[in-house]
Amino acid sequence: MSLQNVIKSIQDIMRKDAGVDGDAQRVSQLVWMLFLKIFDDKEQEYELIDPKYKSPIPEKLRWRNWAANPEGITGDELLDFINNKLFKQLKDLPISAANQRGAIVREVFEDSYNYMKSGTLIRQVANKLNEINFNSQDDRHHFNEIYEHLLKELQNAGNAGEFYTPRPLTKFIVQMVDPKLGEKILDPACGTGGFLVSALQHIRSAEVKTKKQEQTLESNVQGVELKPLPHLLAITNLILHGVEIPEQVRRGDMLSKPLRDYGPKDRVDVIVANPPFGGSVKDGTEDNFPQSFRTKETADLFLVLFMHLLKPTGRCGIVLPDGSLFGEGVKSRIKEKLLEEYNLHTIVRLPQGVFNPYAGVNTNLVFFDKGKPTKEVWYYELPLPAGLKQYTKNRGITDAEFEPVKKWWHKRTENEFAWKVGIDQIRGRNFNLDFKNPNRKDETSNKSPEQLIQAIEQNEGKIRSSIVGIRDIL
Fold it and tell me: What DSSP string runs through 102-158?
């Protein structure tokens, strides 16, 4: 049976269980089981290399001793074992500086749950997972693709969709920022780890030749994630992509710490991220920031944090909603600081629907470097493929659609998709960065009623954002 069919069979089994409600819980249930299976396969590899290897997991709790045998415990006995022994003991694993793997296991299980109510169905899921050999290069390669598909399914899982950024987008941002071996790379809101994986792959393919270089790379690619499900997904994602001990992905909220408390040791060379947007931070979080930048909009606070965390020659590639470009009030003051102290050299305006169905707002890829002020901003309007009205769940953005931007990036000229705006013009508009493409003809007369409605909704969004800006001022 193909790996794709194995995963489909597992999802079908889970749908029969009364305890699992919706895609997010199905993915969460599957991932903690996957984690233990992958961890056990990795340990088999470590045992071959080092006969003295000792697992941080108690012997009876290792996957091989309760899940690997298709005729092993099942039904109520298995359910009782998982709920009252496996989870309880893994949540309470002893941790120490010498037991980093144990710390990772404990951290994974601190916020994981067994949603399934049927031990018989759990046994069926375990038996299916045992069909995958993560020590096989072929199985591992194909499973990476399937795992990516599982992550993408989160876009349909209610609010869980916010944790997933389309991989063509993370890959493009990383390629354009071009992190190097030895540089410290950070995603302060890493979700399922897409930017971290893209950075690992980018640097490995270009520079890593030795084990020491690989260790340097892994120690310098770091992420922080607030919520337990995406944190678990990120850790598993990194293990799947060859990181032995993904301790560099930690649970936390970087906005909860006063900005002034982040000092030189916290600064990084590269930030690549898709900060949460459209939501509000918890009460009091804005007080961690200077008075003139206080707001409840998460994307704006993260932008201030990104600027602060960059080293003197650092660079940044991030996703921002349209509201961050045209908003007034606090947004204007944040953009003024950005343009006065950083070189905001490129804004790639994305087509509609890139984050559908989770978020319908228009988004942009924003690139800036620390060290000198902005003189001009280049814009590139990424067009929709011919015949497509907007991206959808079944037709998302692809790598191929970024190829024209990559060719343009290092040899910039104005064309029907690209234009530049000088700093004086931006300053004259109170740092409003929402510049329309002057090289594209007005296509209003050719738009369908549906497209006109979408345009009206976008304008209403801008009005709402302006009202928020006025409230900030007041």
Answer: HHHHHHHHHT-------HHHHHHHHHHHTT--TTSHHHHHHHHHHHHHHHHHGGGSG
Amino acid (one-letter) located at 8: K
SS3 346: strand
Start-end of CATH 1.20.1260.30 domains in the chain? 3-135
354: closest CA among 131, 142, 165?
A: 165
pLDDT digits (tens, 9 = 90+) for 77-122: 999 999 999 999 999 998 776 678 898 899 889 888 999 999 999 9
DSSP 8-state assignment for residue 438: T
Name, in order, each residue with C-beta under 8 angstroms of 68's C-beta and a sequence gap of 6 or more.
Answer: 40, 126, 130
Mean pLDDT of the residues in the chain = 87
Beta bridge partners of 381: 349
Domain with CATH 3.40.50.150 in the chain: 155-473
Residue 332, CA distances (Å) to 291, 310, 434, 471, 474 in order: 14, 21, 12, 13, 14
* CATH H superfamily, domain 155-473: Vaccinia Virus protein VP39 (3.40.50.150)
In DSSP terms, 369 is beta-bridged to 315, 343
Q: What are the φ and ψ backbone dihedral angles of 381, each rounded to 5 degrees?
A: -95, 110
- Those residues whose C-beta lies under 8 Å from the C-beta of residue 33, and which sit 6 or more positions away, are 67, 125, 126, 129
CA atoms within 13 Å, Cβ hemisphere of 440: 15
The first and second tokens of residue 378, run together, are 């280049």
Handedness of CA 20, 22, 24, 27 (dihedral sign): positive
Q: ∠ at Cα 408 (407, 410), nearest 5°?
A: 90
The CATH architecture one would assign to domain 3-135 is Up-down Bundle (1.20)
Supply the pLDDT for residue 288.
Answer: 93
Q: Are 225 and 25 in contact (CB under 8 A)?
A: no
3-state helix, strand, coil in the chain (%, to 5): 55, 10, 35
Residue 446 has pLDDT above 80, yes or no: no
* One-character DSSP codes across 172-216: HHHHHH---TT--EEETT-TTSHHHHHHHHHHHHHT--SHHHHHH
Q: Please say whether the beta carbons of 248 and 222 come within 8 A.
A: yes
Considering all CA atoms of the chain, what is the largest pairwise distance in Å, rounded to the nearest integer? 74
**421 phi-psi bin (left φ>0, alpha ψ -120 to 50, beta other):** beta
SS (H, E, C) 33-97: HHHHHHHHHHHHHHHHHCCCCCCCCCHHHCHHHHCCCCCCCCHHHHHHHHHHHHHHHHCCCCCCC
Task: Please choose, from the candidates 165, 33, 393, the residue with its C-alpha nearest in 3D space to the C-alpha of residue 25.
Answer: 33
